[in-house]
Amino acid sequence: MASRSTTDMAFQAIIIDDQGRVCADIPESACQQEPGNFFRHVGALALTKSADGLIDPKLVLSWLMTALGAPVALIGLLVPVREAGALLPQLVTAAYLRKLQRRKWAWAMGAAVQGLAAGAIGIIAIGLTGVTAGWAIVVALAILALARSVCSVCYKDVLGKTIDKSRRGTATGLAGSIASVTVIVYALALSFQLVDRMLLVTGGLFLAGAAWIMSAVLFATLTEHAGATEGGKNALKEALAHFTYLRDDPQLRRFILTRGLLTATALAPPFMIAVGSEAGEGYDKLGFLVLASALASLLSSFVWGRLSDRSSRKVLVVAALVASVILAAASWLAFAGTLGGGYIMPMLLFGLMIAYQGVRLGRSTHLVDMADTDTRAAYTALSNTIIGLLLLAGGIFSLIANWFGGEMVLAIMAGMSGLAFLAAWGLDEVQRS
User: What is the distance between the alpha carbons of residues 310 and 307, in angstroms, rounded to a whole number?
Assistant: First the structure.
């Protein structure tokens, strides 16, 4: 009883403005278990987000494959494989996962597989080089991405069943801030080369694997009550049902449009690095780039999360505006040939990653709150599948960069973010409903 009382007190200290802790969106039985579940969510998410930072394909894995002598063509596959591979399978997996009354087990299994895949990349880094290492890492990353797709389908549904509407953004934001501490320590070690950089990167991969496995164990301890299993039909019928939602819900269409335009915040960093490398920045500042990304998460995740609980629409609007300004500045500096000077790129990456965190938390909270228990899994699968296709099609930016330069790509992405600002402005205030 004392332990539970301590948990309740800590929970109330974090949820400062929720006097009486009224649950408006989950049943009373789940409300009673909410404090313990809240901290399990935070702990599991903090571990997985730490792991994400330790293997970051945009920065860490790109550097690793370069150091191992893998060809540029394979390095260019990292972000599309990681992002699209985590999203595209969801239209199929959502139908089968819907049959599970308690989806925490599927999430835990997916996290464990991600841990094993990260460990496999660490082994590859030790034993292989060149094209062989490049292909092996891409395959391992694809397996990791597929496992992540299972977690993505299940997580929002489990979150919606165990944490009340007004506190979901706080849980995810707090987890992001905690995870940033791990990544900052890692980035500082990379920046000042306290240990051999290859040893640090390889060790980080094994640490990421351990973090995912621990998150699987922790998430399995959630108290999740049995939920609805309707919709567990064959993949084709379920897919058609999902597209019916898209046809019938204009707000869902606008949300997907906004999210699609904001993929620029995920796709832009490799092009910033490529342009900066041509100007002399290169990968010798890997640690400072990782540090900039981690600091952005630490300083903004909790704030974005709290703001998302009040208005996820406004979070998306502000994040889109910030991204458009940062990317426009990066493009202008790239055309001027000064993007690679000094610490300009880490500073710009810091600003872009603040916007990216806002996009991640705003879109996640908005989707959960705009849907109900019956449509949440379907909305998630449909949204993620469409975005996965867009990310896969994002390979066209490599062709644009080849023909017109990375500067033009950054300019186009600045325009995408500007259009996302206009699209997000028309979203509903779902937290008021």
Answer: 5
